[in-house]
Every structure is written in structure tokens, then in C-alpha cells.
Amino acid sequence: MIDTHAHIHFPQFDEDREQIIRECEEKLDAVVTVGCDLEDSKKAIKVAESSKNVYASVGIHPHEAKNYSEKDYDRLVELIKSSSRVVAVGEAGLDFYRNLSPKNKQYEIFEMQVEIAKQLNLPIIIHTRNAAKEMAAFIKTKMAGCKGIVHCFSGEKELLEAALDEGLFISYSGIVTYPKNSQLRETLRYVPSSRLLVETDCPYLSPQPVRGKRNKPTYVAYTAMEIAKFLKINFTDIDRITTINAKRVFHLPLTAEEKKERLVYQVGNKLYINLTNKCPCNCKFCFRGTENFILGYNLNLTREPIAEEYMYRIKNPSIYDEVVFCGYGEPFERYETLKTVAKWLKKMGTKKVRVDTCGLGNLITGKDTTKELKGLIDTFSISINAGNKEEYLKTVRPKFGEKSWNAVIDFIKEAKKEGYEVIITAVEHPQFNKDDFIKLANELDVKYRIRPFKRFKKWEE
């Protein structure tokens, strides 16, 4: 696990810093200690250079903006370049709660640091307090092409949408564990797994189980546990997801295991089978082509493996609650491989086999697949993502054109008729007609599930 925002170079750690660093080296993959002005950033670099897994960020906090100007551009760049342990710019941003620097100075110094981050191809760590609307506007107009992290996100919808539209990462601190912060926890549903980070902001903001004590990097585990509990996945899943994301954003080296293309991958006690990158649909909200790492796994296949490779990796499928054909693309694009693996799964005593599909399997294969898969598949989860044909064609954009809608509806009816469990699903995208979707599910007499809309890019794009 990686604490993406700490201040272990602060005076609060003067008495036991070496012990804290040893603890970090034993229990964490990395810690980023974050500077608040140039002198403070020098201290951060010094601490980072004393440890194999502590890194530094160099920047000027909005509280300190009044002490700097654009003339300090070169000084800041020089300090960043002075050490290979510097992995980010910041923390920088806008703080209209304390207003310790004039607003115009805050904007000036923040924009300067964004330009430096772009120039040096580093992420910027963004501080925002009582300035969500202004920060959202700034991100929309000034941060195109800049990687970054919204540090200690506090739940503002406008800021979240602007940040995700520009590809920024969202970092949750110990405040997400506080009982009264239910609205903040709700925002977790809308953050793509590939953009999620955790932090402590130590020595401040101790999570609920240790509230009132000085915070420290290893307490980031409490935040991760709360997020896992809320999202109903395992702690190990959040550990993997946030560690991979932190390495990606800070350009830290991934291990060979982390880089590996995943043919199969586990989330909770379910196993997922990733057959292909290909899909006949081009959904407006889809992550394909935008993100390769989903749920902490690299799902972008550069080849199409044979069935035996999946069997070799799965080994004993009976230990999982469910095995699901679901990956980067549409499973029916590799129909024969799907069938071969499904037969083997049943032979090996798999409890339940599900296919997550767009429902165009019969158009893809030219076959009546619901009859052929009888006894091999238990459940079809069909991503229809609309309640009517017009919305479907605009949002899903299938390559088969207008005949796709009837093909999906026919597939659902046939699957239900053949005795499969059938669930239709939809992402609650900006143009989603929820009433039509529920009405359609009732007419088809099937279960339905509506998934939160997770932004990967601007909807208009």
C-alpha cells in the first residue's frame, strides 16, 4: 500500500522519524512526503533521500503563495530537478477557508506550478478548501494535459466531475472514515477504480479508529479498510488497486507481476476471465482505449490466448463463488474459446458461471448461442444500457446498426425461455432514461441492475 500524501518531514515527527520510516519500509510500498514551500520542500527531499521507499513532492501551498511570485519559477524547477526522489509538484491549489494569501496570489502561484508540472511531466498534488467551484473551473480551463491528484477529496460533486473529466486521480484521507461523512463515502461509487488513491495527510486527519492521536503513514490502512467495506470488496482489492494507481501516477516502477496482462483476475471470491479486447459496441462511457488498468489489473491483451492457457491459470475453479466471463472486451467475440473454457469449468465443478455480455452474441456468431450454451452457462448479465431503441443507438453505438436493438431484445427473451438467469444492466449515464429501463425490465420479466456512472472522460467526447 502507498500513502500518497504525508508530511513526515514536519516537526511532529522529529522525535521518532527514524522509527516511523522503518515502520513504513516494513509495512508500506511507498510514502510521498509533501512540501508546502521551498524551504519545507528541501526538508521533504532530505527525508526522502534517507529511505528506499520515501519520495518527495516539491511545491508551494496556497497559504504560502503570498511569499512567492512567478520570478520563483526557475527556483522551483531547480529544486525539483535536484533529486531523483522528487515524484510530484505540490501541494498547490486554492484555500479560501483561511485565506492566508490573497486569492489573486493563490491563482498566480497555482497556475505557475501547473505549468511546471506540465513541463517536467510530473503530476501535481492539488489542495482545495472552500474553493470547489473555483477549482472545478480552473481544472476545466487550465489543466488540460496535466496529470494530477485531488488530495484529501471532501465530496464536492462539481469538483469530482471536473477532475475525472481531465483524468485526475481522487485521493481519500482519514476523513472518509468519520461516521458523519456518509455523503463523502457515497462519492466512492462514482470514482473509477483506476483513479482511486488513499492517503493520510499525517500528522493530521487521523482515521476514526485512531482519531485524536497523531496520524502516521501506516494508518492509511484504516482508510483503505473503510473504503473496502463501503464498496463491498476485500481489503486486498483496495490495497492492490490503490498501490497500482499510485505507482502509475507517480511514475514508480511496476513489478513484473503488476505489469502482466491478465487473462484471469480475482476480485473478492469471484474469478473473472478476460478473453479479448474486441467489442462490437462503442459505448460513450466505456473505458476501453482510455484505461488499461481496471481494479488494479492490466486488462489490455496484446494477443488472444488459447483456451488451455485459461485452464492452466484457473487451475481449480470450484473454490470461487462464481466464475465470470468479463474483461476488456465482449466474450462472444471469442465464442469457441468461451464454449471450450465453459465446458471445462462445469467439468471441474464450478459453482456458478456467468457471462457479462452486450447481448449481440447471435449477430457476432451467426448462431443461436442460447441453445448451444445450455448447461454451460448459468447466468447472462446483459449490458443494454438503455430502455428504448433511440437511446440505445445513441449511447451504445453498436457496429451492427439499427438491427442491434431487436437482436438484444431477442437474445434476452431466448435466454429467459431457455431457463438461464437473466439480468439486464445499465450505466446511469447523463442521458439515461431510468423509467424506460425499469419499464423494459418489467416487460421482459427479468431482473435489472443500474450501475453508477464512472467518468473516464468528458461525456461530450
Automatic annotation (TrEMBL):
Pfam families: Radical_SAM, TatD_DNase
Domain Radical SAM core: 265-461
Protein name: TatD DNase family protein
The keyword Hydrolase is annotated on this UniProt entry: yes
Residues spanning the membrane: none
Keywords: Hydrolase, Iron, Iron-sulfur, Metal-binding, S-adenosyl-L-methionine
InterPro entries for the chain: Aldolase_TIM, DNase_TatD-rel_CS, Metal_Hydrolase, rSAM, rSAM_sf, rSAM_TatD-assoc, TatD-like, TatD/YcfH-like
Similarity comment: Belongs to the metallo-dependent hydrolases superfamily. TatD-type hydrolase family.
Organism the protein comes from: Desulfurobacterium pacificum
